[in-house]
Target: Amino acid transporter
Amino acid sequence: MFATTLQGFTLGLAMIIPIGAQNAFVLSRGIHRNHHLLTATLCCLCDLVLIGIGVFGGANLLAASPIGLALLTWGGVLFLGWFGLRSLRSAWQGQGGALADSPQIMGVKSVLAMTLGVTLLNPHVYLDTLMLLGSFGSQFAEDLRPAFAAGAMLASLVWFYSLAFGAAALSPWLARGKVQQAIDMVVGIIMLGLAAKLAIGALLAS
Model:
Protein backbone atom coordinates (compact mmCIF):
# COMPACT_ATOMS: atom_id res chain seq x y z
CA MET A 1 0.00 0.00 0.00
CA PHE A 2 2.90 2.35 0.72
CA ALA A 3 4.24 1.75 -2.79
CA THR A 4 0.84 2.65 -4.25
CA THR A 5 0.68 5.84 -2.18
CA LEU A 6 4.19 6.74 -3.30
CA GLN A 7 3.16 6.21 -6.93
CA GLY A 8 0.22 8.53 -6.43
CA PHE A 9 2.43 11.14 -4.76
CA THR A 10 5.10 10.98 -7.49
CA LEU A 11 2.64 11.13 -10.36
CA GLY A 12 0.70 13.89 -8.62
CA LEU A 13 3.84 16.03 -8.33
CA ALA A 14 4.67 15.36 -11.97
CA MET A 15 1.26 16.71 -12.94
CA ILE A 16 1.29 19.74 -10.61
CA ILE A 17 4.86 21.08 -10.63
CA PRO A 18 5.13 22.25 -14.29
CA ILE A 19 4.44 25.98 -14.33
CA GLY A 20 0.87 26.81 -15.21
CA ALA A 21 -1.98 29.15 -14.35
CA GLN A 22 -2.48 27.82 -10.80
CA ASN A 23 1.20 27.87 -9.89
CA ALA A 24 1.73 31.34 -11.33
CA PHE A 25 -1.20 32.76 -9.37
CA VAL A 26 -0.19 31.10 -6.07
CA LEU A 27 3.34 32.42 -6.61
CA SER A 28 2.13 35.97 -7.21
CA ARG A 29 -0.08 35.91 -4.09
CA GLY A 30 2.79 34.55 -2.03
CA ILE A 31 5.21 37.21 -3.22
CA HIS A 32 2.86 39.95 -2.02
CA ARG A 33 1.65 37.98 1.01
CA ASN A 34 -1.80 38.73 -0.30
CA HIS A 35 -4.12 35.95 0.96
CA HIS A 36 -1.53 33.40 -0.23
CA LEU A 37 -2.60 30.69 2.23
CA LEU A 38 -6.23 31.13 1.17
CA THR A 39 -5.15 30.77 -2.45
CA ALA A 40 -3.13 27.62 -1.74
CA THR A 41 -5.97 26.14 0.32
CA LEU A 42 -8.55 26.70 -2.41
CA CYS A 43 -6.25 25.21 -5.07
CA CYS A 44 -5.72 22.17 -2.84
CA LEU A 45 -9.44 21.71 -2.15
CA CYS A 46 -10.27 21.84 -5.86
CA ASP A 47 -7.51 19.35 -6.65
CA LEU A 48 -8.60 17.01 -3.85
CA VAL A 49 -12.18 16.94 -5.12
CA LEU A 50 -11.18 16.44 -8.76
CA ILE A 51 -8.60 13.76 -7.95
CA GLY A 52 -11.16 11.90 -5.86
CA ILE A 53 -13.75 12.07 -8.62
CA GLY A 54 -11.22 10.91 -11.22
CA VAL A 55 -9.75 8.00 -9.29
CA PHE A 56 -13.12 6.69 -8.14
CA GLY A 57 -14.75 6.49 -11.56
CA GLY A 58 -15.31 9.99 -12.88
CA ALA A 59 -12.58 9.95 -15.54
CA ASN A 60 -15.12 9.17 -18.25
CA LEU A 61 -17.32 12.17 -17.44
CA LEU A 62 -15.07 14.67 -19.19
CA ALA A 63 -14.45 12.46 -22.21
CA ALA A 64 -18.19 11.86 -22.61
CA SER A 65 -19.05 15.55 -23.00
CA PRO A 66 -17.26 17.10 -26.02
CA ILE A 67 -19.57 20.14 -25.99
CA GLY A 68 -18.86 20.78 -22.31
CA LEU A 69 -15.14 20.38 -22.91
CA ALA A 70 -15.30 22.84 -25.83
CA LEU A 71 -17.15 25.45 -23.74
CA LEU A 72 -14.67 24.96 -20.92
CA THR A 73 -11.74 25.29 -23.30
CA TRP A 74 -12.89 28.56 -24.88
CA GLY A 75 -13.82 29.95 -21.48
CA GLY A 76 -10.29 29.12 -20.38
CA VAL A 77 -8.83 30.80 -23.48
CA LEU A 78 -10.68 34.04 -22.71
CA PHE A 79 -9.85 33.99 -19.00
CA LEU A 80 -6.15 33.13 -19.40
CA GLY A 81 -5.79 35.65 -22.20
CA TRP A 82 -7.32 38.39 -20.06
CA PHE A 83 -5.14 37.56 -17.07
CA GLY A 84 -2.02 37.36 -19.27
CA LEU A 85 -2.65 40.81 -20.75
CA ARG A 86 -3.32 42.16 -17.25
CA SER A 87 0.03 40.84 -16.04
CA LEU A 88 1.87 42.26 -19.06
CA ARG A 89 0.24 45.65 -18.44
CA SER A 90 1.45 45.54 -14.85
CA ALA A 91 4.98 44.69 -16.03
CA TRP A 92 4.90 47.56 -18.52
CA GLN A 93 3.64 50.08 -15.96
CA GLY A 94 6.19 48.98 -13.36
CA GLN A 95 6.41 51.20 -10.30
CA GLY A 96 4.43 53.90 -12.07
CA GLY A 97 1.33 51.74 -12.36
CA ALA A 98 -1.62 52.20 -10.06
CA LEU A 99 -1.54 49.53 -7.39
CA ALA A 100 -5.30 49.31 -7.33
CA ASP A 101 -5.28 48.34 -11.03
CA SER A 102 -2.44 45.83 -10.83
CA PRO A 103 -2.67 42.09 -10.08
CA GLN A 104 -0.55 42.72 -6.96
CA ILE A 105 -3.25 43.92 -4.56
CA MET A 106 -6.52 41.98 -4.29
CA GLY A 107 -9.32 41.68 -1.77
CA VAL A 108 -10.61 38.35 -0.50
CA LYS A 109 -13.44 38.20 -3.06
CA SER A 110 -11.08 38.95 -5.94
CA VAL A 111 -8.61 36.32 -4.74
CA LEU A 112 -11.39 33.74 -4.44
CA ALA A 113 -12.70 34.54 -7.91
CA MET A 114 -9.28 34.52 -9.53
CA THR A 115 -8.24 31.29 -7.81
CA LEU A 116 -11.41 29.54 -8.95
CA GLY A 117 -10.87 31.00 -12.40
CA VAL A 118 -7.30 29.77 -12.90
CA THR A 119 -8.38 26.39 -11.50
CA LEU A 120 -11.84 25.61 -12.83
CA LEU A 121 -11.58 27.49 -16.14
CA ASN A 122 -8.34 25.75 -17.04
CA PRO A 123 -9.01 22.52 -18.98
CA HIS A 124 -5.51 21.27 -18.15
CA VAL A 125 -6.59 20.90 -14.52
CA TYR A 126 -9.33 18.49 -15.54
CA LEU A 127 -7.06 16.61 -17.94
CA ASP A 128 -4.40 16.20 -15.23
CA THR A 129 -6.70 15.26 -12.36
CA LEU A 130 -9.78 13.65 -13.87
CA MET A 131 -8.26 12.09 -16.98
CA LEU A 132 -4.59 11.28 -16.30
CA LEU A 133 -4.56 10.68 -12.54
CA GLY A 134 -8.07 9.25 -12.69
CA SER A 135 -7.29 6.84 -15.52
CA PHE A 136 -4.05 5.72 -13.88
CA GLY A 137 -5.64 5.30 -10.45
CA SER A 138 -8.61 3.37 -11.81
CA GLN A 139 -6.22 0.64 -12.98
CA PHE A 140 -5.50 -0.33 -9.37
CA ALA A 141 -7.60 -2.80 -7.46
CA GLU A 142 -10.45 -1.15 -5.56
CA ASP A 143 -8.79 -1.63 -2.18
CA LEU A 144 -5.64 0.20 -3.42
CA ARG A 145 -7.34 3.15 -5.07
CA PRO A 146 -7.73 5.11 -1.81
CA ALA A 147 -3.97 4.81 -1.23
CA PHE A 148 -3.21 6.10 -4.74
CA ALA A 149 -5.69 8.95 -4.36
CA ALA A 150 -4.22 9.85 -0.95
CA GLY A 151 -0.73 10.04 -2.45
CA ALA A 152 -1.87 12.29 -5.31
CA MET A 153 -3.80 14.51 -2.89
CA LEU A 154 -0.80 14.76 -0.57
CA ALA A 155 1.31 15.90 -3.52
CA SER A 156 -1.12 18.75 -4.12
CA LEU A 157 -1.05 19.79 -0.46
CA VAL A 158 2.74 19.67 -0.21
CA TRP A 159 3.31 21.54 -3.46
CA PHE A 160 0.84 24.41 -3.14
CA TYR A 161 1.63 25.17 0.50
CA SER A 162 5.38 24.95 -0.19
CA LEU A 163 4.96 27.34 -3.10
CA ALA A 164 2.88 29.80 -1.06
CA PHE A 165 5.17 29.71 2.01
CA GLY A 166 8.32 29.79 -0.13
CA ALA A 167 7.17 32.80 -2.14
CA ALA A 168 6.13 34.62 1.05
CA ALA A 169 9.49 33.89 2.69
CA LEU A 170 11.36 35.22 -0.34
CA SER A 171 9.00 38.16 -0.86
CA PRO A 172 11.47 40.83 0.37
CA TRP A 173 13.63 39.96 -2.63
CA LEU A 174 10.96 38.84 -5.11
CA ALA A 175 8.79 41.92 -4.53
CA ARG A 176 11.51 44.35 -5.65
CA GLY A 177 10.44 46.52 -8.54
CA LYS A 178 12.62 45.05 -11.29
CA VAL A 179 12.15 41.48 -10.07
CA GLN A 180 8.38 41.92 -9.88
CA GLN A 181 8.31 43.39 -13.37
CA ALA A 182 10.20 40.35 -14.65
CA ILE A 183 7.83 37.96 -12.81
CA ASP A 184 4.77 39.78 -14.17
CA MET A 185 6.26 39.55 -17.65
CA VAL A 186 6.92 35.81 -17.32
CA VAL A 187 3.48 35.17 -15.83
CA GLY A 188 1.84 37.15 -18.64
CA ILE A 189 3.74 35.24 -21.32
CA ILE A 190 2.87 31.90 -19.69
CA MET A 191 -0.83 32.78 -19.47
CA LEU A 192 -0.98 33.96 -23.09
CA GLY A 193 0.98 30.89 -24.18
CA LEU A 194 -1.50 28.60 -22.40
CA ALA A 195 -4.41 30.49 -23.95
CA ALA A 196 -2.88 30.13 -27.42
CA LYS A 197 -2.16 26.44 -26.86
CA LEU A 198 -5.74 25.80 -25.76
CA ALA A 199 -7.14 27.74 -28.72
CA ILE A 200 -4.95 25.96 -31.28
CA GLY A 201 -5.80 22.56 -29.77
CA ALA A 202 -9.52 23.33 -29.87
CA LEU A 203 -9.34 24.53 -33.49
CA LEU A 204 -7.40 21.45 -34.59
CA ALA A 205 -9.84 19.17 -32.80
CA SER A 206 -12.89 20.78 -34.40
Observations:
- Confidence is low (pLDDT under 50) at residues 95-102.
- The chain has one domain: 1-205.
